[in-house]
Amino acid sequence: MGLMEGKKGLILGLANDHSIAWGIAQALHREGAEIGYTYVGETLERRVRPLAESLGATLIEPCDVNNDEQIAALMDRARATFGQIDFLIHAVAYANKDELNGPYLRTTRAGFLLALEVSAYSLTALVKAAEDLLAPGASILTLSYHGARKVMPNYNVMGVAKAALEASVYYLAADLGPRGIRINAISAGPIRTLAASGITGFRSLHRAFAEVSPMRRNVTIEDVGNTALYLCSDLASSITGEVLYVDGGFNVMGAPSSDS
Ligand code: 0WE
C-alpha cells in the first residue's frame, strides 16, 4: 500500500524532466497519488502534457500565478475533478535574468516587485484560493534555497524573495494548523534545472557544492522528490512551518574541510 494511496493534489511548476517538480511528481505517483498539473503558455504545455500523461494525470490546466482569475479557474477545475485536495506543490519562481547578476543594489523597483510577486506572493495567493478545497490533513509544500538566509553570489533579489517565501510558510502554518493542514518548504541544493540554465556562475557553484558539502555530491530531483513524499505523507503529521534542507549538509559548513 503506497504512502499516498487515495490522496489527490496539484503540482505547479513542472517544466521538463529536469524539473524538481518532476522528481516530486514521480515520487508521489509511485506511492499512489492522483496528480493534477499546471503550465504557463503553449511552449510549456507541449512539454508538460506528455510528462503529466505518462503519470496518468487527471487534470492539466493553464495557471499563471500572477493572474487571480486563472488561479480561481484552476481551483474550480480541481474541485470538479478531485472534490478536495490533499496536497499542493508550489515549485514556481521567476526573476528577470539581468537581476541575477552583479551587485544586489542594482535591483530595480519593477524587478523586485516581479520577483516577489511570482516567487513569494504566489504561494499565499494559491493557498488563499485553495482554502476551502484543502482536506483536513492536507500538506502544502514549496521550494526554497539557502540564498534566503545567507548571501549567495548573484542570487540577489531571488534571495530576498525566498526569505519572504520562508516567512510566508511560517505565517500560513499558523493560519492552517488549527484545521489540521500543514505547510513546509524544502531548501534544496543547486540542481541543473531549466531555472538554473544560463545562470552566471552556476556551473562553478554546482561543482563547488559537491566538493564542499558533507555528502560530497550534488543533490538530485529524486532526493528532493523523496523528501517531498515524506512531507506530503502522513509520516510527517506533526511537521509544519518547517524549512527542511535537502542539501547533503552544505548549510552546516562554515568553511570547506581541509581534506577534499
Ligand atoms: O531559485 C532558483 C532559480 C530561480 C530563477 C532562475 C531564473 C533563470 C532564468 C528565477 N528566475 C530566473 N529567471 C530567468 O530568466 N535557484 C535556486 C537556482 C539558482 O538560480 C541562481 C542560482 C541558483 C542556485 C541564480 C544566481 C545564482 C545562483
Please characterize this protein's 3D structure.
The protein is 41% helix and 17% strand. The chain is of the alpha/beta class and 260 residues long. The radius of gyration is 18 Å and the shape is globular. The mean pLDDT is 97. It has a single domain, classed as 3-Layer(aba) Sandwich (Rossmann fold), CATH 3.40.50.720. It has seven helices and seven strands, in the order βαβαβαβαβαβααβ. The protein binds ligand 0WE. Ligand 0WE binds next to helix 6. The site of ligand 0WE has 16 residues, from helix 6.
Per-chain topology:
Layout: E1 8-12, H1 20-30, E2 34-39, H2 41-54, E3 59-62, H3 68-82, E4 85-90, H4 109-130, E5 134-144, H5 156-176, E6 182-188, H6 202-212, H7 221-232, E7 243-246
Parallel strand pairs: 1-2, 1-4, 2-3, 4-5, 5-6, 6-7
Helix pairs in contact: 1-7, 3-4, 4-5
The protein binds ligand 0WE.
Ligand 0WE binds near residues 93, 97, 158, 190 and 195.
Average pLDDT across residues? 97
What topology, given as strand order, has the largest sheet? 3-2-1-4-5-6-7
Q: Tell me the series of helices and strands, N- to C-terminal.
A: EHEHEHEHEHEHHE
- State the shape: globular
CATH class: Alpha Beta
Cα radius of gyration in angstroms: 18 Å
Provide the β-strand percentage band. 15-25%
| CATH homolog superfamily | NAD(P)-binding Rossmann-like Domain
Total E-strand runs: 7
